[in-house]
Amino acid sequence: MAERKVAFITGASRGIGRACALELAKRGFDVVVTARTVTGQERYEYSSSIKKKATKPLPGSLEETAREARALGVDALVAKLDLSVRADWASAVQAAVDRFGRIDVLVNNGRYIGPGHMDTFEDTPLELIEQMFLCNVFAAMHLIKLCVPIMRRRGGGIVINVTSSAGDRETPQPIGQGGWGLGYSITKAAFNRMVPGLAKELRADNIAVIGLMPGFVGTERMAIELGDYGFDASKALPVENPGRVCAMLATASDPMVFSGRDLHGPTFYADHAGVQF
Predict the structure, then answer these.
(1) Are 82 and 36 in contact (CB under 8 A)?
(2) What pLDDT, in 10s, does the model give residues 236-247?
(3) Cβ(131)–Cβ(164) under 8 Å?
(4) What is the reported pTM?
């Protein structure tokens, strides 16, 4: 029996990350699901504004995602990874290697969740923007740096960054009324920019670096918390859409064709649904 490939997904307790993990599991990947919410009982601050608090546990946990993945016939490892905790980065990757001996696909989906997203620059403490850079940029860079040698030893791999149009263009809507704060925009710009630069460097190692721009996707948190800020989850795409695109890219016969590109998920899915990769 052939050894299954392994996918390492951040932010996999709910939303797009959970969908990516389950769609990859459907394609036969063992999965390493990581996030800060392990049991679902943890209380973290997830309010998008410094003006209010929100700590009631959101739906979803790593344990639930792992159970769902195992029900699909693959193995699933739960590894706590709080992007704001530097010690978690290497320990989660090491846990994956200890369990499976390989990482074939890294999905950088997780990001900073908390105050500052819906606050003006003047109202946002710079320490929060530093936290956004730590979670949205530096954590992903460290994970890539940790995974590249593992992928190289096996002859290649795939890095998928779940990007955002916020890093490329500014919305005309006011902040908190369909618009977002500066910290989110500038950190996503840096995160998006990783794709072409790293793709150029890692092509010789047969490691594809691909951007997946999911579009407007309705997550559990959006439905619960972001309605007050002008984001209507009922009008958004389901999380399964970017999840399926992620799985399509991870199983492409030649993922290097997509390396260095930032793919618009809804368009890609519409153009390639039913195509055997």
Answers:
(1) yes
(2) 989 999 999 999
(3) no
(4) 0.95
